[in-house]
Amino acid sequence: MQLDLExxxxxxxxxxxxxxxxxxxxxxxxxxxxxxxxxxxHRAQVNNILRSTTPLAMAESNxxxxxxxxxxxxxxxxxxxxxxxxxxxxxxxxxxxxAYGDFAEACWLxxxxxxxxxxxxxxxxxxxxxxxxxELLEYLKDYGHVLRQLPDEPKAVLIERKIDELKHAxxxxxx
Length: 175
Fold this sequence. Notes:
The chain is mostly helical. The chain is built from seven helices and no strands. It is rod-shaped.
């Protein structure tokens, strides 16, 4: 079919169709621009969050993610970095103490008694400050077993004394 632009009806239809196509294109472009604006705004928000994240928060977050992967070496490194940035932060001290203790247990399970004793020794002071009595008791018992297996009698006796003191201070642990 051939268009007859001399015919006023045909010309009007053609102009209306062209106008509808243009309107449709404008609407599509409008929504595409809005989508692009939202993406740009989202990227700006993400960049602001990343810029506002402190080295302390990043170190703690990286440590938390490493613990979830059971990557205790990276967890310990990140928590140690966080402690250097905020030495009085009890929450991070608790996480570092548990990471030391959990890595000590992993060393023990892999028959690395010296490594286990080393990390338990680092864990205990932090756990004494931050852990619940029942958590501390479990770590101390495990540390005592490692010291007996080494054998390191003097340290084992000190840990057993700590266990007795803890049980005396918290009779509910004697059950």
